[in-house]
Amino acid sequence: MVDLMGQYSKIKNEIDRNIISSIESGRFVNGPIVEEFSENLSDYLNVKNVIPCANGTDALQIAFMALDLKPGDEIICPSWTYIATAEAAAILGIKVVFCDVDLDTFNTRADLIEPHINKNTKAIVPVHLYGQSCDMAAIIKLSSKYNLKIIEDNAQAIGCKYTFPNGDIKFTGTLGHIGTTSFYPSKNLGCYGDGGAIFTNDDTLAEKIRMTVNHGEKIKYHHEIIGCNSRLDSIQAEILNIKLNYLDTYNSNRKIMANNYNLALSGINELVTPKVLDNSEHVYHQYTLRVLNGKRDDFSSYLNDLAIPSMIYYPIPIHKQKPYRNDQILKNTDILSDEVISLPIHTELETSSQEYIIENIIKFFK
Ligand SMILES: *Cc1c(COP(=O)(O)O)cnc(C)c1O
């Protein structure tokens, strides 16, 4: 599904040189390069504060901590997401309430969130799944109506732009009160280990987040709040700082690949190609199809027999996972778990490999 070694081979000289100089500097955690990378990312995203941390799951947990969410409080997030979105709240004793998603975009919508709001609801956690923004104008309007905070889980959509109805264009992750991301190796901006970051335009929240990632201290050994240990190491920051320069190129390659799939596959009746909203870009962290008429599993074994990689994100929605199980019926989420399949889409995918994948998909549906 990804070719991280192929990508590395093209930037090997830069990466190797900077990793070695980082080791030789003797600053392994929170060195100057971590600061430099956060400034570069904050310039790129046009957001006031970027606070690096250890991974995308911690980024979410720290966002909840910075907003002072406590046991008894509720957040609303889609069940159709990676487990981390819910887990980061559940670990703090926050009640996770699941909402459904749109069948065509795989993302949640304001009207699917609103019925779950009650007096305990404190925050909404929209997830920009597979690389496309949720319709944030409507979600922001909803959050103002009920005075709720928005934490955007932007782990899959870094570099994606959203256009507001008034024409303003902003990056996902900078649209709500707090945005979070992951630099896990396979993400659109990935390092060679674990990493994550938190974004906010609110300086007061940023100060709290900076303390939270580092044991609740501003001054060493003076602990003002309960925090955790969630830092980005210097070697990962070196890698991210280099790869940030290539993010737009990587994302446009993904778009070209997605376009090839769309052109070739949109005529097949039993496949639904991904729908992109008019007001969002798509950076295709995943290229995800719906396979109709109960054929997904046969299609998946067919690809497997041909050694064509494919994945099901996600085979079991969170509201059906043991620790989170409830009797909620989320119609679209349940349909998607039976229908979705993701095809290889990455920065190193060769046109010839993609043609081979496409030919064989067409054969299956003939
Ligand atoms: C990857 C991911 C995370 C978690 O990131 P980690 O760095 O693996 O902790 C959270 N949410 C979503 C939607 C993700 O895809």
Tell me what the structure shows.
The structure is a single chain. The chain has 366 residues and is α/β, with parallel strands linked by helices. It folds into two domains: 4-245, Aspartate Aminotransferase, domain 2 (3-Layer(aba) Sandwich); 247-365, Aspartate Aminotransferase, domain 1. The chain has twelve helices and 14 strands. The protein has helices at 4-25, 32-45, 56-66, 84-90, 110-113, 136-146, 203-212, 234-244, 247-265, 296-305, 331-339, 351-365; strands at residues 49-53, 74-78, 95-99, 121-124, 149-153, 161-163, 169-171, 178-182, 196-200, 217-219, 222-223, 271-272, 287-291, 340-343. A seven-stranded mixed sheet has the order 1-9-8-5-4-2-3, with helices on both faces. α6 links the parallel β4 (121-124) and β5 (149-153). α3 (56-66) crosses α4. The longest helix has 22 residues, at 4-25. It is globular. The chain starts with a helix and ends with a helix. The model has no long low-confidence stretch (mean pLDDT 97). It binds pyridoxal-5'-phosphate. Residues 55-57, 81-82, 84-85, 127, 153, 155-156, 182, 184, 194, 196 line the site of pyridoxal-5'-phosphate.
CATH topology of the largest domain: Aspartate Aminotransferase, domain 2
Cα radius of gyration in angstroms: 21 Å
Main pleated sheet: 7 strands, mixed
Bound compounds, each kind once, are:
pyridoxal-5'-phosphate
Structural class: alpha/beta
Supply the number of helical segments. Answer: 12
Q: Name the strands of the widest sheet in spatial order.
A: 1-9-8-5-4-2-3
Number of domains: 2
CATH top level label of the largest domain: Alpha Beta
Number of strands: 14
Ends apart, CA distance between termini: 25 Å
> What low-confidence regions span 5 or more consecutive residues with pLDDT below 50?
none
Order of helices and strands: HHEHEHEHEHEEEEEHEEHHEEHHEH
Output the CATH homologous superfamily of the largest domain. Answer: Type I PLP-dependent aspartate aminotransferase-like (Major domain)
Mean pLDDT comes to: 97
Beta content comes to 15-25%
Helix content range = 25-40%
**Shape descriptor:** globular
Reported CATH architecture of the largest domain = 3-Layer(aba) Sandwich
